[in-house]
Amino acid sequence: MLARIRLIFDIKVFIMINKSFRYEQVIRKIEETITGLQLQPGDKLPSVRKVSDELKVSLTTVNQAYAILEAKGSIISRPGSGFYINTVSKNVLTTKRFIPLPEKVEVSSMAAAMMKNTNKYSVINFSSLAPINEYLPITKINKAMQASMKEESGIYQYNFLEGHPRLRRQIALQSFDWDKSIKQDEILITNGCMEAINLCLDAVTQPGDIVAVESPVYAGILQCLESKGLKALGINTDPVTGLDLDDLENALNNNKVTACIFMPVCQNPYGCSMPEESKIRLVKILGERNIPLIEDDALGELYFEKSRPLPAKAYDTYDNVLYCSSFSKSVMPGFRIGWVAAGKYMAEIEKLKFAENISTNGLLQDAIARFLESGTYQPHIKKLRQFAKKQICQYRNAILKYFPGDVKITEPAGGYSLWVQLPENVNALTLQREALKFGIGFCPGQIFSANNHFQNFVRINCCPMWTTRIDDALKTLGKLTASINNRQLQ
Asked: Which of 7, 50, 266, 349 gets the most CB atoms within 10 Å of its CB?
């Protein structure tokens, strides 16, 4: 009890001294106090409302502070009881920092070979992020397609350049509660999220330009940059709180950055999400410098809590965010239906879309629009989030059980994947070659960096339904990892 009173008092004094505090400072002070008072696992922390009242801060700020501490493993929540001190797991991944330098991107051949080998040799695919058929609304989508073919004669002609009005209206409705919502006429439908990102890059960059990306970053983004002759500037990213905004500002001050591509919600490969204040600060940093922010929100709907965090676009008062998303990770991967809301760059995006392929498949657009109109989208997303969260938990437990004891692993806030740090002596490409002999494919860490970082990291896709077969495959990967590590130590 005295420890809890002391914790509140220390935080309150700290806030009084640092009046221009942010929730990051609250987190840091709580962690320092826990260490200084030698609080034990199981000691209860003050309630969210108690801290809010004592410090005269919002419940949202305290909730965010506690949520980040929980994600780090410092504390745990017990439903109906509150927050308690937890032992910090030695297996929780921490940030691996690098000095941001513009790099020529050369990952396409490596990524292409990885996908080709996985498709050719692997029986179990831990590479591609896509929901399995059992968790797709196939029956409802089929009914929607049948209705579309029966009622909508326009689907047999070229579609509108900007996309089907019915679908654009439904997408716009999803942003209704944003601080700055998207209007229907601000949306253009694309062939998946990657076409949207490619169009955005073509609209705001020229060959040789520098584009800031997260580090690590989704390999597909690096392939886009390589194909356009662009340089990548990797910005350090925290596996819990996302993009390091101080590093970003330093990089912008020291490099002529033309554009940025970031995933503020459910980042790939970390699965982390930036706090709201950080997204607002990100929009401001880039808006004031007039540096376009291409926001990749392909996985945003896969946030594990009941309601997903808002994207950076929701706070875009500068009209400077080119927002890209799709239904590939949430409704129907094979349809390849995405969209972009590009703000002040929209006119250029429309020209590029027309020159590229005129329009996107009208039948598939109409079918997804009808599915959204039916009112079953949100129940479907809720079910999908529960599935993804359960899968992540089962995969993570198996990796910790079967891999060498010094392996470290993320605790994602959403998405379908885990980012795993192997022992220093284990090269991910070597592990991949040996794993393919057993019919197991995964993504090596090297393809998530333009400068060959993350050589002892892998991304594991947790979409394949958990079975004893999956358990056995992870056990095999763990044995192969240990074997390679032991050979290098000899």
From this structure: 266
Q: Cβ(10)–Cβ(29) under 8 Å?
A: yes
pTM of model > 0.90: no
Of the candidates 293, 225, 118, the residue with the CA atom closest to the CA atom of residue 450: 225
**251, 399, 451, 489 from 425: Cα distances, Å:** 31, 18, 19, 8
Q: List the beta bridge partners of residue 104.
A: 231
Residue type, 100: P
301: three-class secondary structure by DSSP: helix
Phi/psi of residue 92, each to 5°? -80, 130
The Cα–Cα gap between 135 and 384 comes to: 6
Q: Select from 22, 15, 7, 18 the least CA-distant residue to 74.
A: 7
Q: Mean pLDDT per 10-residue run, the chain (490 residues)?
A: 50 45 61 56 75 73 76 67 64 64 61 59 81 94 92 76 94 91 95 97 97 96 94 94 95 96 97 95 98 98 91 96 97 96 96 91 94 95 94 94 93 95 94 93 92 91 95 97 87
pLDDT in tens, 465-481: 999 999 999 999 999 99
Pairing of strands 75-78, 82-85: antiparallel
Q: Residue 93: left if φ>0, alpha if ψ -120 to 50, beta else—which one? A: beta
**Cβ atoms < 10 Å from Cβ of 38:** 8
Give me the torsion for CA of 116, 120, 121, 126, rounded to 10°: 60
Going along 206-299, which residue ranges are E strands? 210-215, 231-238, 242-243, 257-262, 293-296
User: Three-class SS of residue 468?
Assistant: helix
435-469 per-position pLDDT tens digit: 999 999 999 999 999 887 899 999 999 999 999 99
Q: How far is CA 286 from CA 252, 258, 276, in A?
A: 9, 10, 16
Instruction: Give the CA dihedral 358, 361, 367, 368, nearest 10 degrees.
Output: -70
Q: Alpha-carbon distance 143 to 136, whole Å?
A: 14
Task: State the residue for tokens 């958990």.
Answer: 466
239 — phi, psi (to 5°)?
A: -70, -5
Which are the contacts of 283, defined by CB distance < 8 A and separation ≥ 6?
A: 293, 312, 315, 316, 317, 318, 320, 321
The β-bridge relationship of strands 231-238 and 210-215 is parallel
Count of beta carbons in the 10 Å neighbourhood of residue 143: 15
Q: How many whole angstroms separate alpha carbon 394 and alpha carbon 403?
A: 14
